[in-house]
Amino acid sequence: MTWTLLLQHLANGVALGFVFGLVAIGYTLVYGVVKLVNFAHGDIFMMASFFVYYGIVLFSFPWWFSFVCAIFLTALLGISIEKVAYKPLRDAPRISSLCSAIGMSFLLENFATVVFGGRQKPFYQPQILSKTLDIGGVRIQLVTVVTILVSVAALLFLNYLVYRTRMGLAMRALAHDFDTARLMGINVDRTITFTFAVGSSLAAISAIFWALRYPQIWPFMGVFPGWRAFTAAIIGGIGSIKGAMTGGFLIGMISIMLVAFLPDLAGYRDAFIFMMLVLVLLFKPTGLFGEA
């Protein structure tokens, strides 16, 4: 394998790692603040792709405007799910919230099947993003470069939001001690709602780039990316933003490099991913960056 081909695979692995990492951050933000695994997160990912599809096909919006609208609508969907499925169970036993999350996942999948149809639909690919760049003999699709740049910008904004704003301080306070934060005057409901909005927006961004890379959407498309991203969050240490992104990179690299170097084992990608998960849990049960 030549160096140029290796660099192409590395670029694809980094881009895919960012996609998984952004979804994993959505999981880890919600868990860090509410101590709830939002199993509907992968289906929120799926709904974002349909928001884009119908924005372009049904309303004839420009593709960039449909992308922005999809992020906004997905944030509203995340807020609505929190209000309907999780807020009434906030003081209930954890198993109740878990059952509600699984039920919401099934609801979104079946809602999409009934309303949007079960057949795969082609996702619009802007012509400008379909171009291929030749950088020193390395041929990289423009969508790969844009994925990396937008993801880096989203991470920088998230880092500023969490560590440099009052809302970020409130999120970190809830993650540290829920009851004490409430006693200190933090608006718990507003902070949790904001957390769901941010996590859902990140899922929308990753869904757009996933659909641009694999341009077919259907009601169950969020299952495998969702589970891989959840695995990434656990590997990195659920509750840790840095850990979620690290886990996403590891899974993205495995997914790409296994196909590139060991194509005969490409069908066992998920087996390798979950094997890595088992090894991490055996030797570091809290994840790579998780707190004891």
Describe this structure as you would to a colleague:
The chain is mainly alpha-helical and about 290 residues long. The chain has one domain (about 5-265): Orthogonal Bundle (ABC transporter involved in vitamin B12 uptake, BtuC), CATH 1.10.3470. The chain is about 75% helix and about 5% strand. The strands form 2 sheets. A two-stranded antiparallel sheet has the order 1-4. Strand 2 (about 130-135) and strand 3 (about 140) form a beta hairpin.
Cα(first) to Cα(last) distance is 42 Å
> What is the number of helices?
11
Structural class: mainly alpha
For the biggest β-sheet, the strand order reads: 1-4
CATH architecture: Orthogonal Bundle
E-strand count: 4
**Residues in helices, as a percent range:** over 70%
Task: Point out poorly predicted stretches.
Answer: none
Give the count of structural domains. Answer: 1
In short, what is this structure?
The protein is mostly helical. The protein has 11 helices and 4 strands, in the order ααααβββααααβααα.
